[in-house]
Structure formats: structure tokens, C-alpha cells
Design brief:
The complex is a heterodimer of chains A (112) and B (113).
Chain A (H helix, E strand, L loop, with lengths): L4 E3 L2 E5 L4 E6 L7 E6 L6 E6 L5 E4 L2 E5 L5 E6 L8 E8 L7 E3 L3 E6 L1
Parallel strand pairs in A: 2-11
Antiparallel strand pairs in A: 1-3, 3-8, 4-5, 4-9, 6-7, 7-8, 9-10, 9-11
Chain B lengths: L4 E3 L2 E4 L5 E6 L6 E7 L5 E8 L2 E5 L7 E4 L6 E5 L8 E8 L7 E2 L3 E5 L1
Parallel strand pairs in B: 2-11
Antiparallel strand pairs in B: 1-3, 3-8, 4-5, 4-9, 5-6, 7-8, 9-10, 9-11
Amino acid sequence: TQLLEQSPQFLSIQEGENLTVYCNSSSVFSSLQWYRQEPGEGPVLLVTVVTGGEVKKLKRLTFQFGDARKDSSLHITAAQPGDTGLYLCAGPGSSNTGKLIFGQGTTLQVKP
Amino acid sequence: EPEVTQTPSHQVTQMGQEVILRCVPISNHLYFYWYRQILGQKVEFLVSFYNNEISEKSEIFDDQFSVERPDGSNFTLKIRSTKLEDSAMYFCASRRQGADGYTFGSGTRLTVV
């Protein structure tokens, strides 16, 4: 069974601090995606990482895919209150139907 | 920017009643999905749909669940006889050919009482 474990589950920091969220699995994934979800809304895709070792940047967000394609990280530099939300990693299941397996999410609160 | 539209946004129903959750996927997308998220839990896959048929379903998607794409634009999830444990946010998502990422709708909050 493919599982994605995220850590930490909750993170509360002050504006301006840096943080890293981790997404780990014992299984190899062909790609991993990161989504952000606001309360009462659906997940919104931030990035897809495909190649082992790949690093992608989205403004103050840096995403990395592990060399072995079993893990990924999201690093936020100088967090702002607008970054507050639930961050989800997700990867495709092995069945090739496009089904996504989600981690349990990391709830980030950035205090002004 | 194209959106996936879900209706209703909230639905309260009595246990044992049938509910239909509606979705309008993005028009040039070919793959359609339903997921659910019970409060405080993971987003869980329910079913994938391609070429007018189910391509995969999870253990959650039992005989009480069905999906339809009746008219080429709407994509519906029906729960025949709702149970208390069906209370959750239900998300519809669609994906175009060759893309990894999904576009999710804003969800329907289903409350079974």
C-alpha cells in the first residue's frame, strides 16, 4: 500500500520565519504534487515535481523531490500571514488511472 | 481561469435519503474524479472516470455510490441511502490528457443527520 506521511502536522510560526514541511514514503512515486487548501475550499495545485533531485521555486516557496523519488519537501522563506493554510502532498497511485494518494496535510499558521 | 464547479455547496440530508452531488468539470478535461475529506482526516480517493466509464474505484465506493456523466458536461455522484458516516466534504476534480495536476472544485459539504 502506498502511503504518504507528512510532518509536522501542525506548525505555528511568526511572520518572517522560515519553515520546511516534509512528505515521506517508503514507496517510489513517479511524481509528487503539492497542494494548498483553504478552509471550505478544494485543494489548489502549487507544483508538480517529476525528476529525482528536482528543485522548483514558486516565489518564496521551494519544492524538492528526493533523489530516490520517495520523498519531497516544501520550504517557505520569510513566511507571511497569507501563507496560512493546509499544505498537502499527493502522488499518483500505481494503477495508472490518475488516482491521487494524499498525505494527511500540514496545517500552517503564520502569525503577524 | 477555468474552474470546476460543484453544487450544492452545502447539503443536509436525513439518514437513508438519496443525495446527488453535481459537478461541472473543465470542458477540455477528459479525466474526472470524486474525492472525499472527512473532517480532520486525509483526502480520500473515491472513483475515477474516463471515457464514460469508471476506471478505478476505492473500497469506500460500494454499491451505495454511483457516478454518471449524463450530458457531456455534468458529472454526478449519487449516494443511494446515506449513512451518518457519509458526512464529509466531497470534491470533484478533473484533469486534462497528459497533465499530472488536477483542478479541484470547492466541494460540497454533506451532513447526514
